[in-house]
Amino acid sequence: MRTQGGRRQRGLTGMLDAMPAAMALGGYLLMLFILALWVEKKSPLAQALSRHPLVYSLTLGVYCTSWTYYGSVGMAASSGIMFYTTYLGPTLAAFFWPMLLPRMIRLKNQLHSTSIADFISARYGKSPAVAALAALLALCGVAPYLALQLRSVVSSFTVVAGTRWTVAQSGIVGPGVVVSMILFTILFGLRRLDPTERHPGLMAVVAAESAVKLAALTGVGLFVVFGLNGGFADLFAKAGSAGVLPPAFPEGAGGYVRWTSLLILSASAAMFLPRQFHAAVVENSDVGHVRTATWAFPLYLFCITLFVLPIAVQGLLSGLPVETADTYVLRLPMLHDRPWLTLLVFLGGFSAAAGMIMVSSVTLATMTVNHLLLPLSDMIPLLRFLRRRLLGARRAAAACIIALAGWYESRVGEAFMLADLGIVSFAAVLQFAPALLVGFFWRNAGRAGAFLGLGGGLLTWLYTMIVPALARSGRLPGDILDHGLFGVPSLRPEALFGLTGMDGVSHAVFWSLAVNIGFFVAGSLYFRQNSQDRRAADLFCAPGKDRGASLVSHLERNIDLGRKRDLLAGLVGVYFPVAEALAMVDRRAQALGLSGRERMTVLELADLHQAVEAELAGAVGAATAGQALPASRIFTPEERDELSGAYGRLLAELRLSPEELVARIDFHRERERLMRDYSRELEARVVERTRDLAAKAGELAAANERLCELDRMKSAFLSSVSHELRTPLTSIMGFARLVARDFHKIFTPLAATDADVRKKAGRALENLEIIRIEAARLTRLVDDVLDLTRIEDGRMAWHDAPLSPQELASEAARDIAPVLLEHPGLSVRLDVPGDVPCVLADRERMLQVLGNLLHNAVKFCRAGEIVLGARLMPDGGVGFFVSDQGPGVPEADRERIFEKFHQKDRSGDPRDKPRGTGLGLSICKSVAIRYGGRVWVADRPGGGSVFWMWLPPGVVVWEMES
Q1: Is 450 within a domain?
Q2: Which of 138, 491, 618, 918 has the CA that lies 20 to 30 A from 559?
Q3: CATH of the domain at 409
Q4: What pLDDT digit, counting tens, does each position of 258-274 carry?
Q5: What does pTM read for this prediction?
Q6: Range of 336's domain?
Q7: Are 419 and 72 spatial neighbours (Cβ–Cβ below 8 Å)?
Q8: What is the pLDDT averaged over residues 417-424?
């Protein structure tokens, strides 16, 4: 063994003297940078490559970090196949991706979500508090994972350097790695600010790194299994003979509990780690790639873990200490003098760590700036300069995050192996699961529950996982592990509330998840959702519904597009230069088809507002974008009223099922959102209008009194005129009859002998008859006006008595008989069953009603049968009806025909003019109202109309039925 170690030292010394490792690493990074630039040039070949589904699947390989590369071997050496749980969990989760990932991607595209914190806040009404807490949770949870990557790079570099590396030189390795990772992150992931938050160049680099680390780990595995041994069977046989074979299965109930805990943690981590969410959801360019990833990603996990256990077994067989098992992958090629394989392993490990650090730092920097720093800039004026320096702020945030991870690794990391550091982060991101998964299926989940659940889970995770680590590293008093916080035994971090018999990981998973779910459900049930929460729930919990259907309206284009463009650009200009802000608004206007126009409708303004807010959300987050572009700044009160009315008309025009209606638009909630934005302004307007109304109250009262007086004067005038007209009209009719009689006596003998006299006498008689008919028509008009005036002002004398519907119908038919002589094609039929009871009413008024209805039917019928009848109605009242075979009454005119002086031509002949006074149906309505009834018209089966007058049960006289 000593000879092998000496040969190893000589080989490594030669490598370091020639600096091939540094040159190889520099060349490797240069190739990755060229690849990133080529992809971002967007050439057809580069675009086709970056959008390939296998490349998308390889980017998901960022899940396999230095934990997989180094830490899994260490875990396999000590726990056997227990390490497979961290890859079996994502494999099982991948089978559910087709049901979940496409929904998340479509919602991300619709909402322009930039991170997992932004996505969660969008589910809960774009709550800034939920977004900030989720960002803080991600920051606290991923910092240990970043520390793991930094520690792996430092450890691998120290192993490769060997004994030639002095203590002083070793002291600069950690800071040097931190600085280099900051530079790589800015170089590959934060070179520019993209509102879409997609980085195809970065993803191409991640995919390439995934391929390199798979090749490196596979190379070491092949060397171990087939270079040093005769295959898998030979290797495990030697390990069995030497007694170094790791345990195959968990021991006891505690082992299976830990197995289950790790399975849950790894399954959630494959989806909810910020870098995984970014690669799987934010960077996705085609939903169809999910189908490929469903089998390609599990295949990648299988290939990259195939040789983990053999490498761990070979390290134990080679006599390497189990404490250094994390570096077996690197030490075995060095031990057997394979410098180029060692160099490949080093590049693979660097790729595993660098890929995770770059993607995680980019996502954490985005969340930190969008959800922590920008909200602070709204509250602290000194920080408002950050709005116009988003790219610089993100770079500074990424640098601080990586530096924080370096500090964590130096202060706390010694308490963990690499695998344990990964478990700490997995337990942290597990807290995202209830808010996201339950939020997809439970419509009543609200922002209060999400905030309480995330907060409770975060605090429990800190207490049950981080506090023990700090206590073991000496950063906290060690007695807290034995005696609990404040000396309370039930508050021991690793035996909380007396729960013992579980390992630290299972214990932390159980309590953090229990507190998270409990607070989440309790907060959602106790605190009511607001309108934003309900709209978000409708959006997230209704998959497959088309919310983008365009609704055609005929609104007036009365809004100045240029003025609104400048207003939106001014609000966006808080975060971008003026030219970029204008370009963003113009880009959205062009996408909506508004380019080249001067004016737009209020619905188009609403679409433009939402589109600009969505694009701004890609840069600053949905919560911050919603606060930067409030509707109260975009819409004037008049535009808000018009938009509210437009939504109302659109809703009325939509003939949808309830499910479709909920999926497309909820008018009441939209109106509530708009009204809330203007609530304060409306309150001020109401107060002002109230003062105006109070000032004009006296004027309105005086005007109302004057109108009442004028109405009384009108009624008195009509009554007086009607009385004055009745006397001369009666005289005209009487004298016309006398003249006609005397004319007959004088001219009849002469007309018998003289044809000329006979002809002139006939014309004179015809003129006298016209005078009589027209005088009679004027008399009816006067009578109608007089009757209507008396009914309205209460001067009509009513003589109510029990009346038989059969007798009323018969008498009304007799009264109309002379009129039917002029229309030989018409006939009247009575239809009054014997079971129709009597009604308590005025005979003259009832005959007037029935006569008016019959005259109306005669007026509009050319031929056919008119039916006058009565029915006992289902409610106990009595209905009189007149049915005709005329042209019918259009739907739009069925209310107007009962108004005063309204006449409608229903004959269909344009030569006919309306005949009558226009008061007959109005009198029918007034009489019906006097008895508590009503009148209406309906279609007659087969064509025509049926006019009804209904009298309520209160006027029915049942004892008079006989």
Answers
A1: yes
A2: 618
A3: 1.20.1730.10
A4: 788 888 888 888 888 88
A5: 0.59
A6: 2-424
A7: yes
A8: 62
